[in-house]
């Protein structure tokens, strides 16, 4: 029995493609290399790209009736709900804390951009599906 490395490579490639796209988009918006904007938040969602790439690859190879597809979709839902709600709330709390500590000497700024909008999540899903389709097609 040989291992199909596509299942290990696909999420990594989805993360890489989404990260490069996010860096490029942020750099164009900022009109300079946007190294400081790498991380949580932004378009496309890395997390959504990673989990959707795996769900899509399983759908392409095993079919949507396979139990692994159900598990992958469940995990994807949890990750995307977290990205759109919990992490956005964390970002709002960080913004409030940053405002409260502005008057203190050398305030440690918390990262405020944490969650994703629906558009960012959808873009991440699209990246994940495209990467999975390319891997499934033989890349």
From TrEMBL:
It comes from the Bacteria. Pfam families: DUF212 (PF02681). The chain crosses the membrane at residues 6-25, 37-58, 64-83, 118-135. InterPro entries: DUF212 (IPR003832). Coiled coil: none annotated. Keywords: Membrane, Transmembrane, Transmembrane helix. This is Acid phosphatase. It comes from Stenotrophomonas terrae.
């Amino acid at each position: 029995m040989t291992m199909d490395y596509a299942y290990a490579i696909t999420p990594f490639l989805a993360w890489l493609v989404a990260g490069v796209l996010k860096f490029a988009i942020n750099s164009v918006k900022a009109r300079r290399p946007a190294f400081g904007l790498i991380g949580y938040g932004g378009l496309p969602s890395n997390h959504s790209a990673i989990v959707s790439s795996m769900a899509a690859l399983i759908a392409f190879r095993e079919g949507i009736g396979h139990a692994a597809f159900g598990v992958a979709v469940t995990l994807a839902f949890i990750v995307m709900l977290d990205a759109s709600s919990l992490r956005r709330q964390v970002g709002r709390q960080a913004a409030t804390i940053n405002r409260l500590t502005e008057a203190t000497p050398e305030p440690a700024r918390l990262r405020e951009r944490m969650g994703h909008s629906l558009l960012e999540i959808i873009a991440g899903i699209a990246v994940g599906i495209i990467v999975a389709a390319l891997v499934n097609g033989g890349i």
